[in-house]
Each structure stands twice: as structure tokens, then as C-alpha cells.
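Exercise 7. Given the components listed, write out the predicted structure of the assembled complex. Treat all entries as one system.
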Amino acid sequence: MKIMSDAKKIENPTIMSRKLLFLHKIPILKTRKFWDGLKEGKIYTTRCRKCGQSYYPPQADCFKCLASDMEYFEIANEGEIVTFVASYLVPQGFENYQIPYIIAIVKTSNELKLMGFIEGIDYKNIKVGMKVKITTKIQPDGFPAIVFIP
Amino acid sequence: MSRKVAIIGVGNSKFGVRDDALLQEIAFEAVKEALEDAGITQKEIELSVVGSVGTRMYEALPAVPVNEYAGFSGVGLIRVEAACASGSAALFTAYNAIASGYVDIAIAIGAEKMCEIDTSTSTAVGGRGGNYLWEFHMFGTSFACYYAFYATAHMNKFGTTEEQLAMVAVKNHKYASMNPKAHLQREIKLEDVLKSRIICWPLKLYDCCPISDGAAAAILASEDKVKEFKIEDPVWIAGIGYASDTSNIVRRPDYVGLSATVKAANIAYKKAGIEPKDVEVAEVHDCFTIAEIMAYEDLGFCKKGEGGKLIEEGQTYIGGRMPVNVDGGLKAKGHPLGATGVSMVYELTRQLRNEGKNRQVPLKKYIALAHNIGGTGHYGYVTILRR
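Answer.
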């Protein structure tokens, strides 16, 4: 995103900082069914047993009625594109992803919205309102993803 | 009953790729200018509030070196973070300390260095400015992606065009070319924007603000101190509004406006006792061109969906119905995250004092508005100034 043609770019003397690497171990105990589901092509999310409030992304605690008694349900496997982008940026950690990668937000028939990749289609041929099938995949780098197929 | 709070001194460092200076050295430029502008010394300051996101910097607690270097060690110190609205949050914190009667003089310093790391790391840090686990982790959603979601939806719903987005960039570069403190001090043409490389479709390079280093400072004082210092006719903070929105953007009802802007603006207008039409000059959060168009609408400068038309008619230039970002905005002045909100107040304070020189907006009511967003509407601050 840096605009390269900065007028009169002079490199000033600098020294290098010491290296510092962060890799986090992220607890998934309370949303485990979601992460397991992704491996089987299913997207599970939560609904409060007490007040009926649905959540996506899944969460273990209901902020509406403050109960912590959730049931999982499977999200509909069809939806409609609400908005989308085609990204040419390569953030650290995504070096092996092909650019542009297309990310969309899709509304499912159960009125929840999900984010996911759209693959195998030029972004110029995608339209808001387009119907998609919702599935999952494991990326070559081992990370799971939600994928929309037009 | 809260006390009145005035802005008695402002300062702004040069924005840009500042590989000539450390964070605290850049902050010093802003603090020195603000102290000299107020005509006071550090010993008058009772509280120092530093707004800094800090996630791209090697100093993990940036307020501490900034405070020491500027000669404030020993003074009460708070570091605040509200993503790209950290500067406004710092101002709000300093304001509250004075309005509540706890202190009489406080300084709000916004400071950020963003250019010391590579762009891929910066993109990955910025992309964490929403919800890492459920969004960035799987999809690598950069900040440009978030605003691009809004651009696609706005264009689809209201027919807003890529040309209208580009017009925002052309305007803001024009004013940055007249601002010696701006990062990108050059004019550009509509074709330059339209032909620039795609960053995250539909946003192109010139739809995006640059990655900048910079700092700004504002010294706030109670009415008692204003009288004691015999300051005539200062700029007053007339109202501050604040709001937030969902961390996960999939939990929002639509992508054509920022509800944090609408809510924060309503609070600020009510506190100040004004309406949108009373505002004569505004600084809005144009991190991407679509953000400025949505801000016009969400702040009530035009109807929802008519933001594209407002820039197309030239109404947000000086001489138009509502001059916006006449210092170049985030888009061309630069957006050193924590500095931005304070820098907006720097510009507006100077405008309200008629110190805008060749960029001065003609004023009758002397009412100005600063709109500062953190994340993609994750935080919203609207500050109204009056003289």
C-alpha cells in the first residue's frame, strides 16, 4: 500500500532491531466442533438453548441472556453474495496464496453471514446477489478455509 | 456539571516516511510546537495522554519514551488505544480529565511510526484490526479488503462510481500539495487514480492512504486557566461523540455506511447543540476514498447514497457547501494511526483561528468537525470545535 514515488527519497542511516517472533497457541476448546467440522466440509455454529439467539462466528456464551448453554447447528450450504473483493496484497503468512484472492461475504438462508474465498472464477464475472454453494477446504499450508462456489 | 474545555496550543510534526527520526523525536516536534503555541512550559501540564496503536513498533510501551523525551517524566501518564482513532481517544481522555475538574491542563499526544517494518508485515498487522481468529486467520483480510467490501456494496447499491472515488483522491492531493506537513505533497489527475494498480479491487493504489510516520499534539485547558492566561477567544471543544461496532464484520446488517459514525455524530451534534448544516469545515476519516464518501453521508452532509454526487459537484472543496479535508486528509497528508485524530484537531484549530493561509476556509459560525474512525468503524469518534 505504500506509495512508492515519494519525492526525493533519501535513505537515512538505520540499525536493525533484535528479532522477535510471535506464534500463538489459540484455545479452541469452546468452539471445537466448528474447527472439526471444517475438516469434513461442514460449518457448525452455535445457538443459545435458553433464548434462541444464533451466533456466527460460534461463541460459547450468550451475550443476550448471559447463559452459557449452547447447541451447535449446521449452517445452510447455500447463500447469496452480499459483497466481495479481489485482493492483490500479500500479508505476512499468506505468501503461498495465489493473487488476486477473492474474498466474499455471503448471506445464508438462515440469515447468518459468513466470510469465505471464491475460487475458480475471475472477479470480473462475480456479481452481488449471485447464488453460491458453501463448502470448506484445507489449504496447502494446512489452514482450513470456507469456500464459496458460484 | 462538566466544565468547559479549550484548546490552547497545537502542534504537528512533518508526516511522511520519517527514517530520519525516532518515534520520540517526531513526537517532540509536535509537543514543542504545541507548547510554544500555548506559550507555556511542561511544568504547567498535569496529565499527559498518549494515543498510539503501537503494534508496528519496537517500543512496546511507546508512551513512556515519548513522555520522557518531551520532558514530561513524573507527570500523570496514560497511553490509550482505539485503533486508527487512538488520537481522538487521547483527546477525549484529556478532555474528560479537565471537564470533570480533576486537572486544569492536559496534553494529548498522538504518535506513530509505521515505516520501520516491511509492507507485508504491516499489512498483516493492519489486517488484525478487526477480528484475527474468525477473519484474518483464514482469509488474510487486509485493511484495504475491509474498506473494499464497503466500496463494492456501496457501488452496487447506490451506483457510486470508481471515478467518484478517484475524485476524493484528486481533491485531497490538491490540498496536500499546499500543506508543507503532508506526506504526499503533489497534485494528481483523475486518470492517475484510475490507472493506478489494483490493491484490493475495487480499490486502487491512489484510493488508499500511504503508510506514514508522524505525530501531533494538543494542549487542553479549563476555563479558569484560559482566564488566568488571559487567552482571548480560544477554540472550545463543543462536544465529543463516541461509538463502536461489531468486531466481526459479518455480524453487521449492511456494508454501505458505518453505524459508529452515525451514532458518534448524533451524540456530538446533541452535546454541541448543533446540526450537520452548522458545520463549516470538516476533517473526515478518509483512509480509503470510499471512507470519505460514506462519511459525507453518515455525518449528515448529504443524504445516504449521495456522497458520490457531493464530490462530483465539487461541494467538498473550499468554496463548496462543506469543505472537507482541506489539509490533504489521511489520503494525502498521511495516516500515522495514533497521530491522526490529534492532527485533525491541529488543522481545525488553525482553521478556526483563521491561520489556514492559502487553505483557509471562509467561516461565519466558526464551527468545525473532526471525524476519526478506528478499524472499519470498530471505533468512532466525532469531535466538534467552536470558536
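Discussion: Helices of chain A lie at 32-39. Confidence is low (pLDDT under 50) at residues 1-7 of chain A.
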